[in-house]
What we know:
It comes from Fumia xinanensis. Pfam families: DUF2726 (PF10881). InterPro entries: DUF2726 (IPR024402). Residues 44-159 form the DUF2726 domain. The protein is of the alpha+beta class. It has helices spanning 4-27, 49-62, 88-96, 126-142, 161-172; strands at residues 67-73, 99-105, 112-119, 146-150. The model has no long low-confidence stretch (mean pLDDT 86). The chain has one domain (49-172). A hairpin with a 6-residue loop joins strand 2 (99-105) and strand 3 (112-119).
Amino acid sequence: MMDPIYYLLIWIAAAAVAAYIVDVVRRRPEQANPNGKLPYEKQKNFLSPAEHSFYLAMQNHLESQFTICPKVGIKELICVQKGVGRDWRKYFNWISRKHVDFVLCRPDTMEVICAVELDDKSHLRQDRRRRDEFVDKLFEQVGIPLFHIPVKPGYTHEDFAPVLLLREEFTLK
């Protein structure tokens, strides 16, 4: 009969092998679609009707002072600081799937000047308010002005007044 310590060692070794296999499977790169199915199609519209209307109004009122980039991923604007160690992935995941509606850049350098969120009724939902609060704090932290402009049938020059003030700032540089 085997000594009980051997049973314990065998159990520990089996658990270590199982943990290793689970880790390897988790880290395995995403495999190509094995059966070749591609159940995708082109979106009918890149911008919603409200976003498109707002985009045209921005073009008109900002008079080509900015390059307007719609639907920009926050991860393209903001990165996780070095030195967070193992928490890097956690912090990255908090921003990786979030977008802002528009980003305005200097046309000559593509330096980010500000971001604009077009707030429709969905921004009244509790989950959306939590998301907006996080994004507002994030943009404030990194020094990118973020403007919230409510959706409406038409826009006037006054709707873009805060953005137009930034134009004066960046032209002085």
